[in-house]
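Entry:
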Amino acid sequence: MLFRKKKEKQPSNISMMDNKVNDDFVAEKVTKIKDEDVELVMDNEEAISQKLSNASPLRKYAELGKIMFAMLKDVKKGNYPNVPWFTIASIVVVLLYIFNPLDLVPDFIPGIGYIDDLAVLSIGMGWIETDLHKYLDWRLANGENA
């Protein structure tokens, strides 16, 4: 296994506008992530990054996506050890969900197609924000451009 698994974390109590997209939904998906899913995200990095950059509601999160990909790469290479599996799985769920055009609210619906993507991104970020900050601090301490 590429990454160590961590005990399941209790989902937070973030309230969501759409009751279909909530912590329980995302938590369920996170617990089902496997190493193959991590590889799927890595293989589709360019397409996911392009979607983040080209979709108006998601554009401001493009840089965040780059940081997530960089973290996954450093963990996979063994450069940045001791990342909880829950963090890796959360990143994978968020990126795969954004990549999927036919999710709970299909992306091609004008005006509301990205609401669920933003909700999943917000939930995931709420769970892993501390780990992303630690990663960025590590990159700065090691002289890498953040």
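The radius of gyration is 15 Å.
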